[in-house]
Amino acid sequence: MKTRSLSSALYDQISAALQEVWSLHTSSKWTVDTPAQGQCGVTAVVVQDRLGGEILKTMTKEGWHYYNRINDDVYDFTASQFAGDIAYLHVLSSRTEAFSDTHQEQYDALSSRMAELLGRSK
Questions:
Q1: pTM for the full model?
Q2: Most buried of the four, 7, 57, 82, 83, by CB within 10 Å?
C-alpha cells in the first residue's frame, strides 16, 4: 500500500478546519446541507498555499472542478459537493485558473480563518 504524502491526522485536521470555515463568505454557493458547494477553486488555492503541490482540474456537469496533487497524491477536499462519483481527468491547472472560480474577498476569508485554526506555518 502506498504511503500518502499527508498523514491521516493532517488530512483530518485540514478537512475539519475547512468544514468549520466554509461559509457564504468563502463561496456564494455555500449551503448548510452542502458546505463544500462552490468551494473548489478557493480551497485548491488555499491548500496549495499551505501544502504546496499542484492544482488539477476535471470537467463535471457543473463546469471545471479544482483540487490538489501533493507529492503525487491527489486530494479533493471539496468532493462532497457532488452526489455521485467524479470522473477525474487530472488536467494540470494553475492558481490563476482556479482563482477565476472565486474572488479576493472569498480567498482572504478562507485563508485567514484557516491560518487561525491551523496556525500560520505550513
A1: 0.92
A2: 57
